[in-house]
Amino acid sequence: MLEAFILSAYLEIGWIPHVDFTTWEPNSRREVLIITDSFYADIDAKLSFYFLWIRAGFKVYAWDAVDFFSMSPHTLDSRVSFGLAFGPVTVGHRHVCRHPVMPRLRGSEPIRYANDSAEAEWFLRVDIGGER
Questions:
Q1: Which residue of 9, 61, 73, 120 is most buried, as measured by CB atoms within 10 A?
Q2: 115-129 pLDDT per residue, tens
Q3: Nearest to 33 by CA among 115, 117, 116
């Protein structure tokens, strides 16, 4: 029975050379924050049982705070999905949300560049060749 469970995971790290954050604060003007040298870490895991699967992961974005070895996290993307896979056909549900990290760590300062968002998706995917 336990042989039917398949666990897979990945860890990805990367560099984003240029980022534009456009924010709209209540009762104020539009602000654009241009960031160079942003980094991220992406962690994801999937558990499969025959044709059923569930997947969860998160991606943390960080700025170069003081030097190359000091990072200041600013955004967290969370993902949770589940579904059924029959050969090349997959049916599932995906929830993705983005929340600020840095503004919440600064205590009493007003939240700036707080890009909160969430979405839920129902999907049907057909894979055509290659890996999925």
A1: 61
A2: 678 899 999 999 998
A3: 115
